[in-house]
Every structure is written in C-alpha cells, then in structure tokens.
Amino acid sequence: MKSITAYKQLNLTHLQTALPQLLETARREQWTYETMVERALGAELDGREQKATARRLKAARIPSKKTVEGFDFSFQPSLSERRIRELADLSFVRTCTNVIFLGPPGTGKTHLSLALANRALAEGHSVLFTTLAELAQSLESASHPGLMRQRLRRYIAPSLLIIDEVGYTRLTAEQAHHFFELVAARYEHGSIILTSNTSFTGWGALLGDEVLATALLDRLLHHAEVIAINGSSYRMKERRTESRTPSTLSDTARHAAGDLPTGV
C-alpha cells in the first residue's frame, strides 16, 4: 500500500503499470542497477508522452487522418510537391508563419491542411482545427465579455490553428470583428493554416468591410506562404469514376446473361 501511495505522490502512474514486467525482464536478463533505472524512467516518460499525444489529438478536433504521402500530386500539376514537403518539416510553425491554400472546392486544400496538422501533432505541437463558420458562431454566441475572452484564448493558445472553408459564409459585422481580433492576436505569435475558395480581392465582401479586410490581410499575409491550387476537383473525379462503375458492372452482367452481343 505504501508503494502505491508513493507512485501517486511522485506521479509515476505509468511506471506503476510497467514495473512488474520490467522486474521480470530484469531478473531474466540480469540487468545492472543502472539499466533498470534507465528502463524504469524510460517507461514513465514513454507513458507520459503517449498520454500527452492522445490529449493533444483530442484537443485538436482533427476530423480525419490525412498525410502528405496520401496526396495525389499527379492530379494537381499546378501544385509543387517539393514546396509542400518543405512545409512538412514544420519550420513555418516554429517561425509563426501562416500558410494560405487558395483554390476551387475539392482541389485538396483541406487534405493538405490536415496532413500538415497531423505532422505537427506528431512532433508535439498543439493544434486546433475549425471552420470559419464554427469559429464565427462560437465567438458570437459568447454571452458576456468574460466568456468571449475565454473562447478567444482557446483559438489563440495552440501553436497551429487551422481555419477551413473561408469564403463559404459571409460574416456579420460582429463576426468579422471577432475574426480580425483573432488574427491580430496570433500575429507573430502562432501559425495559421487557412483554406479559402475566395481570392483576397473578395474578402471585403466576405467581411462586409473593405477597411477591416485590408487590416486583417495585412497581418495574415505579412509572414505567410500563399499556395494557389488551380486544378480539378478530386470529388468530381471520384464521382465520375463511381458513375461509370455501375454501368460497367451492368454491362458485364448483361454480357454474362447473353443480353448484349459481343463487341457492344
């Protein structure tokens, strides 16, 4: 019982779980005292890192697991694979540089954002994913200034903030002001990955205020990598493939049944 209390007091919860197996292996392999201490400390540190990783992943609210390796660069020839792989070394996070993906819907902007976010999580950075609509609603619905500051801190705190789907929803004056506050607060303090289907010239209409849009873009783009993807939609490609598949299967079945002559 004393040993259990000692584990809790010293916060060695992972070592408590791992110790029986460590002791068994130490006896079998005749570890030295130094080896035993190193393995015991290693087990505790590994357990803490796994727990921290799981906590960061849950807090990040990443909707799906995407990777750079899983992106089909051959389908988007306008996109530089080398540039994306350079971003994947995460120097932009360390230097508080923003990354802006611009392009039509379905061209892989969100995939690349999530791939970089997952890489950042794996390297121990704190991450948070949101859409602009979710962000705007969350900040606007704060019922008093204290709650507003608390929610704003939630988006300011992570090393990397992903804001997806900018351009799909026009913001109210209040929402646009909150969006500006957030970008200004993160300026030179934390990285933002942002995806948008709207060119920067259209942000005045998006925010309903040309002056505010100019001020926001000034901060957002001062330290930023802007990557335009001028290609076709992956989703439309998959839809075209799926639309052909039933017809092919149907023709095959009809050939087998003798309903279609050979060569049709």
Report on the architecture of this protein:
The chain is of the alpha/beta class and 264 residues long. It folds into two domains: 2-47; 73-235, Rossmann fold (3-Layer(aba) Sandwich), CATH 3.40.50. 59% of the residues lie in helices and 11% in strands. The chain has twelve helices and five strands. Strands 2-3-4-1-5 form a five-stranded parallel sheet. Helix 2 packs antiparallel against helix 3 and helix 9 runs parallel beside helix 11. The radius of gyration is 26 Å and the shape is elongated. The protein starts with a helix and ends in a 7-residue tail after the last helix.
Q: Kindly, what is the distance between the CA atoms of the first and last residues, rounded to a whole number of angstroms?
A: 81 Å
Mean pLDDT: 86
Supply the helix-strand structural class.
Answer: alpha/beta
In the CATH hierarchy, the third-tier topology of the largest domain is known as Rossmann fold
The main pleated sheet reads as: 5 strands, parallel
Cα Rg: 26 Å
Query: What overall form do the CA principal axes indicate?
Result: elongated
Report the top-level CATH class of the largest domain. Alpha Beta
Which percent range fits the helix content?
A: 55-70%
Number of spatially distinct domains = 2
User: If strands are numbered along the chain, what order do they take across the biggest sheet?
Assistant: 2-3-4-1-5
> What amount of the residues lies in strands?
5-15%
The number of strands is 5
List unreliable stretches of 5+ residues: 247-264
Number of H/I helices: 12
Helix/strand order, N-terminal first: HHHHHEHEHHEHEHHEH
The CATH architecture of the largest domain can be given as 3-Layer(aba) Sandwich
> CATH superfamily name of the largest domain?
P-loop containing nucleotide triphosphate hydrolases
